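In these records, each integer encodes one residue's backbone shape. Here is one protein:

___
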Amino acid sequence: MIPVFGGLSLSLALGLSFIAFIILFLFIRTGDYRFYLAGWRSVVMVSLFSILATLLLLNELIQSNFDVDYVAHYTSLETPLLYKVTALWAGQAGSLLFWLFILSIYCLIVLFQNRNKYTQLMPWVILVLVSIQFFFLIITNFVANPFSPTDVNFIVANGNGLNPLLQNLTMSIHPPTLYLGYVGFSVPFAFAIAALITGDTSPLWIRSIRRWTLIVWMFQSAGVILGGWWAYQELGWGGYWAWDPVENASFMPWLTGTAFLHSIIIQEKKDMLRIWNIVLIVLTFSLCIFGTFLTRSGVMSSVHSFTASNLGPLFLGYVFFNLFISFGLIIYRKSDFKSKRRIKSFTSRESGFLFNNVIFVIICFAVFWGTIFPVISEAVTGTKITVGAPFFNQVTIPIGLFLLFMTGVGPILVWRRTSKQAFIRNFSLPIAFGLVSLLGGIIIGMSGYVIISFALIGFVTAVILEEFIRGIRSRRKVQNETVITALISMVRKNRSRYGGYIVHLGIVFMFVGFTGRAFNQELEFSIKKGQFQKFGSYQFEFISLQELERPNHFAWVAGLNVWNDQNEIITRLSPEKRIYFHRDPNPDRRQPHSELSIFSTVFKDIYSIFSGIDIEQEIAYIKIMINPLVWWVWLGGWVLVAGTLIALWPHKE
């Protein structure tokens, strides 16, 4: 009975969204506030019915109701409770409903937060948001209904269960976090379209969504980083970014969203780049929908993607529809939104922000082209080609290093024009730090992009530290405070500025980790119990092999002692070889999986994979990777999120 209510909720939401659309248009045409109030209430009900449908599906997943096709495909009786919840976004239909769920929550926040604000913009904002809901409701009602019954003529006693790769704590967090970013960009997009339609050239729409954009950007950033963490912990190839099409799909809107976040500062402070900002947010939202297309169309092979379906043309058509409407409005309002002020100097902070924006967009285009080129090539020539990591690295590494350089340059440029004296004063110390880093790299034998990266890391770090030191000195001189008190007071008084510097510091830390990949080492070997294997400056001793039966899998657990050059045991690794659905009489249903064991330090990770076992010979096949500086990638991610939270923290009135 509950699946019937779930399907009914989606149907009611679809009908109400269409009604809300008509009523709001009547308000815009007549100005009768009663129509606005009725439309507002209709959108509230659309959102509530969508949320209810999601909760009902979640209930069916937890209760293991295998009469629902989606439940039968993505859970089983053995699936732990946490991963039954995770199954909500593990499949095609559930993930689309989950997208609608988050969008509905965001809609309710926007509706109640701005109930008595932005009276000119809000009717159009609501129309744009409900039109997005309408699109997803059509899909969840007619194309990928999560409440569809299981199409068999017998009682289903057990389900297929969740893919072992998804039975990971990070995968319980990563998709929701990424979706909070993906879906959240719908709101600034709605405000931008409302500003275009109404011809509101004031920075009002920018002010109304600046904090919102920062919040969803933080979720998008955290989602991308968590995706890398999951890949590193679960996939067993020793890396965290493979330029997979679906990884790229999450990265591209992050790039344009980051550009937008920087660019709106200029519009707020200097009333410049009005059209550019609208273009950026339109591209960001469109790339979010395009990423959904890549994930669900089946046109690209990826460990992250869903199975091929007929959703691809719908999403691609929706992307083109949004681009056509948005750029049509931009062209129509071009003269109204054209900024009267101009950037007057190449050495101004405004130009630094603009250069940053251009670099972000160039990287985004390079990633976009490398992602879709195989599809275009196959469609035109019939030949399937692969664009792999070498292409992306060759293109993005030099551009990324220039972006890192601009991360340091931007904060020490002055608004309007940087004088010669200010240029020398602001750049002398950072350039000296950069040169010292460069010299240190040469001495220890670095070369190529590695040495350039470490030189730029030194340069940008010096810029950030110099900004903090100057602020502390100024407060100590005026207020006679201690260093700690001055630091806290300084950050509290200007959270957005110093929060931004902390975000940049997090990016610097991540670049330290990225650069460490140049020194990765790996070795694959077979070993018997009691034997040693030397690799690098370590000895690996195979001391035990356990057999464990757990509720949803069987595991062989290898015990490896790791010895250093001083003959000291520094850690014990316990990689596992698992068989999921091991009790199933059908061998084809049994799913092997390697669970990793990683010893992580500030300087390097020792990464172990139990890739196979010969039970008769008692031989384990082990792969060891030594990955320097990976820890800094995750530290940088945490610092980035912390800096964003500082920038977001509300000021006391």
Q: What stands out?
A: The longest helix spans residues 349-381. Strands lie at 521-528, 532-535, 538-550, 553-563, 569-573, 576-580, 591-595, 597-600, 604-614, 619-628. The mean pLDDT is 88.
